[in-house]
Specification:
The complex is a heterodimer of chains A (480) and B (991). Chain A has one domain: Serine Threonine Protein Phosphatase 5, Tetratricopeptide repeat (Alpha Horseshoe), CATH 1.25.40.390. Chain A is built from 19 helices and six strands. Chain A has a two-stranded antiparallel sheet. A two-stranded antiparallel sheet of chain A has the order 2-6. By secondary structure, chain B is mostly beta strands. Among the domains of chain B are: 75 residues, Immunoglobulin-like, CATH 2.60.40.10; 133 residues, TonB-dependent receptor, plug domain (Ferric Hydroxamate Uptake Protein, Chain A, domain 1, Beta Complex), CATH 2.170.130.10; 80 residues, no CATH class; 173 residues. In chain B, 9% of the residues lie in helices and 49% in strands. In chain B, the strands form twelve sheets. Chain B has a 22-stranded antiparallel β-barrel. A five-stranded mixed β-sheet of chain B has the order 10-15-16-13-14. Chain B has a four-stranded antiparallel β-sheet with strand order 3-2-5-6, with no helix packed on it. In chain B, a hairpin with a 2-residue loop joins β24 and β25. The longest helix of chain B has 20 residues. Classes of the chains: A mainly alpha (480), B mainly beta (991). The interface between A and B is large, with 113 and 116 residues.
Amino acid sequence: MKNLFKIVLLFGGITVLSACSDDLLDTQPRQSLTPEVALADVPGYQALLNSAYGKLRNFSYYGQQMIIAPDVMADNLRIIANTGRYIGQESNADRAHIGLWYTAFWTGINEVNVIIAGVDAAAGADADKAQIKAQALFLRALFYHDLAKVYGYEPGKEVGGWNKAVILRTTPTLGFSDADFRERATNAEVYTQIEKDLQAAIAILPVGSIGSSGIYKATKGAAQALLARVYLYAGRNSDAATMATNAMTSFGLTDTGTGLLTTTNYITAFSTAPNPESLFELEQRSVDWSSVDGVNNSVSSLVSNVGTSAQFILTATDDLISKYESGDVRRTAWVTTTRTGASGNVYNNEKWKGHKGDFLQNIAILRGSELYLIRAEARYKLANEAGAIADLNALRSKRGLANLSSTLTGTDLFNKIMDERRVEFALEGHRWFDLKRNGMTITKGAGFTAVPYTDYRILAPIPQAELQLNSKLVNNPNYK
Amino acid sequence: MNMKKNLLLGIMLFLTTAFAFAQKRVVTGTVISGDDKKPLAGVSVRVKGTATGVSTNVDGRYSIEIPENAAALTFTYIGFKNQETTIAKRNTIDVTLIPDVQALSEFVVTSFNNQSKREITGAIASVKGTVFQDLPMQSFDRAMQGRVAGVQVTSTSGQPGGNLTVRVRGVGSINAGNDPLYIVDGVQVASGGLSGQASQNALGSINPNDIESIEVLKDAAAAAIYGAQAANGVVLITTKKGSKGKSKLRVSVQEGVVNAINLYDVMDSKELATIKQAAFVNAGLPVANAIATYGNPADPNLLNTDWVDALYRTGRLSMYDVSLSGGDEKTTFFTSFSHNKQDGQIIMSDYARTTGRLNVTHNPNKKLTVTTNLSLSYQNSFGSIDRGNFVNSPFVAGFEARRNVPIYNADGSFAAYPSNHLFGYNIVQGVNQELRIGKTVQTVSNLQLNYKFTPWLSLNSYAGIDFSDNKDENSRPSTIPAFSSYGGAATYTDRRNTNYNTNHNFNVNKTFGSHTINGILGVEYKGAESEAQTATGRGFANPTLRYLNNAATPFSVGGSFTEFKRAGIFSQAKYEYSDKYTAEVTFRRDGHSRFGEKKRWGNFGAASLGWRISSESFMKNLTWLDNLRLRASYGVTGNSDIDNFASRNLVGSSGQYLGGGGLSFSQLGNDLLTWEEAETFNFGLDWSVFNGRLTGTVDAWRKNSKSLLFGTPLVIDSGFGSITRNTGLVRNQGIDFDFQSVNVLAGKFKWTTNFNISFLNNELMELYDGLQRIGNTLIVGKPISFFYSQEFLGVNPANGRNMYADANGNYTYIVADAGLRYIGKTIPTSFGGFANNFTYGPVSLDVFFQYQFGNLAFNQDLYNLAMSGATPGNQLRSQLDYWKQPGDITNTARPYEGGQEPGTSSLQTGSTRLISDGSYIRLKQVTLNYTLPQTLMKKFGMTQGSFFVQGLNLLTFTKYNGIDPEANSLGSTYGSYPNARQVALGLNLTF
């Protein structure tokens, strides 16, 4: 018994003594790292870049919303099954818009800001660091351009002089004091930053080959293509045409359209990874999704009847179908089918077949044909109608269509450019923005009313929680 | 050994001496209860002024040898008044003991020692195990519901064995945990859920029938000795111990049924087809489309499948419980075994638990006491998707499924559900074929050594562990169309939680005349570690194969690890003068690994005073007053219930790109993060009058929770949603009333009442940086949980559109953010319980109501079910009252397919239309008990025996617009698993 007593005293004594030491309280978050450890070297920054690329696949971004919403908010898609999704967007209801102002989106911006600010000081080869930084610059430009086109008017296209775009952050948030309240920058300021980032990226990024696995990452040509798009949005038509030409050169696309998809592989290209016409494509793997994301959230499940469990809630409007000329290979992207409870013409979409299994496929964010359409539109706006027609014909020749009449001119030509864009990018998330940046009325199908360009619903609302938190933040006009 | 021999010799000498000088004789008799006139076993019978004593036997009989000169016998028995009877010349002395309803000297388990309830200065409430013995409840937290003033227990899931939410004196913390600290026989156990597949209560590993008592430490004076984590109150659970004497075997068996308390009344297929036609017509869509999907209401053969009936059932509940206790001079023990199986009201959903326990106390010598409490339990739950708007939840899809669609094909196989609704998921097939199994083995065990240096000084050394090992299985077979594209999937998760604590403390207890001093000085150390691994496989060659080795594709893996450590030093000193004045001081210093390196340690403490007014001489004349005591306390306790690494900057995994792992900033750290504090004031009054016929306690309290561990929002354009800081102040204040009375005590009839009610006020006092509100979720001057919504003004009789109040109170069809307004709070204003016991001879009836008032509840199910036929699923029958023509006065809008009529906000706009009064009164328990006749019990050698029938959740009185106001009083309310009604027959026998 005396021994037991001694043991008790000893045990107690040790605890008393050791309780006073902080070592007793040491713990390690073994599944996470500290920033100091994580970002000591190039592999750490590469991992941060991987995370930033991954932000593109969010279902609120290119994973779904940025593909579907611009088409259903405009005149390309209609709802054929009422699951509650996109019902508000179809009728352009108040606040039913595109929402990119969510935490994960801004986390992506912070990730690229951390890379851009810090990678130069990390341990590793300079060449590797430069490549990582250039890709981060490309992503930052893409993120900001998407924000700017959703929340603000394009420079020069302001309604009532409203020129606010989004909050512009180009330095990382590494501590509490960095998370300061800011005002929305003007559209011009944001576009200036985007141009600067892309120019810097173009100078460093390697040349990639169209439709190769190299375009799963940012390349020089992809940055040029994005910049051409940005110039077109900004109304800098001459720069847009030049930059489109530069991008075509980078990817080896000729003025006659050589290098584009042809009538034989246009449809299959969307079920090929990578798409042979991709300039920048988001690669996706099954591990990126939870076991129900395919059926719940994929574009494929929403627009096709592939598999028995697809939701198949959206199809092409008759108006869209009417824009396809006879012989256009792109028309075959819509296959007539039926849907219980849906009247009218119902089409299954062939671009989004989830060929990787369980509704999974890659997402082409920039395709070669866009360069021809950018240049055609820019040339038209520069009064180079012949050049515009030449670019349209180069694309049309690869889509099974005859050359346009050289007499096509003025508004007719412009409308042709818009129609060509519409059929080329149906279900690729362009339509709303193409109408908006040209200051055009959003036309709608039967049962819905058109949205004039001057209507407040052209711009998306800023989340109310952010407005309440940040007194410097103002909402877009007429959101009450 | 030598000492022992000497002692024995001494005793023998003494006895011999006694024989030599005293004449003795024998007195016999029977002791019965004045209550029911039944014999009392175990009554202590002593010769007054001596140590000589015996106990009565099962028949209440005793036989005692007394010295010739003995004057009187004393009879003592717990729960009865002591009685003294003069012997005179009698040889037979029969006694009737009078019940002592006052029971003031009852012992209450406090922190590191036991105290008489009479001397406690803090606010402590106690529930004895006998109150909830044999109730068909799987965890003790459920047993506390409505029984303790100031403690709100909410059963948020009807899953048998599921979790509960327990709040002691309001909700003080905005982001940190609000759960009390649970301590089972000294082991600080983790509360919450164990499984990811079913709500499985971590406290369910303790068989409620093994519990002797539950004490809830409500104020700082009572809880401060637990410093860390005590801010939310402390719940102490003490399991049963054996007592020396004849071994007691107790057997309890119970069988019963479980069914739904309430269901939604949904339309039949004809009614739905009718409203859908109206919706299609109004939206300008072809009627043929409505008919194609919903059928033709004119069709007399329209299928009318009863999905609800196929999913709900009357389940079975069984409880088997055996315990054995006893002991001798040196060792006492209590051991038990129980098995409990309960079906849910939903098919497949069930719960089974097996527990075993061994509690042993051994005294190797007079100074040392060794105690160990060992428990082992196995819980096996089959879950159901509970909460959330999920197509595979029977609580969502069961009501929503269209009744013109069949469950089965003609050949008996499951029919495919139309793909344009519920993702084509046939809910009856899904519930039958998806496996959601959670199995957990858990032990809560401890070892304790107590060494008495002197009668007034002892050392206590304690170590306890709470260990659980959970295995979850989720199988989604390929027979279900949604999972067929990849050949089905199976996910297995293993979780292991280790949670230990040890403390070592000196206890002093000494009385000098009228002065009594108590003291505690000790140290404590606690650590907890949780690990989990999960793996998913896909592609099973046959749907009956479900293990990962059968999977064609090893699909994904996951895992997690987390830990914390805590250390503390504590002390307590108490002084009492003459049972009149009591003063107590507690101090504690704690360090926690969760906080910033320089801010880990915090100091906590409390001081309290007690004054027994009734012992003052000026009160002596008030003979009707048994006891009147005033208590006052003030103290500060801590809360550390946040993520284990909340103070650190963290970079965590973030998916992959092109096969390369991603890293992302997962958390913005704060190295100044430290303890959240709760400052508590308590004034209490204990009183008892008319010889204990009426007793009560009133506590008025205020708790200021400050330096909150607050996830303060950051502007999300920073890339982060929030950062945890110590800021903000929340004030809870209230009054707890607890009242017991013996209303009638007449012959064989007795009626007693226990009543408690708490009034609670919760208010956010401060945020930070002068901020007055955070979005629409926190507003200074309001409670910390409320509804902020649009105000529904009804349907415009002119056009059938929903009208809402705009910012100026005028009606509008299109809601604006400016129209959002404060609607009301989710925290009740008052809550409590009301228990009555009626006894007549061998029959007793318990009737127990539990209630809460003053909270609003939001029924999200109405988003699906009450949308004027705008949604694709079935609707509540009440929606048939929809607007049909100008002039119709109704609250159900004009149907419009999709609900998005141009020029209006969507029919699915959140508004007060979906919010209703969440107050309720629930007949929680009725037990009718029949005590078996003495003659019968004697025949079988029993000391106690009874037969009972009881029911839980029998009736609910509420204005709530959903199924269960209790389950839906917290959190998201889509498809919550409602509580069930249970009715059972049982028998308990003690040998």
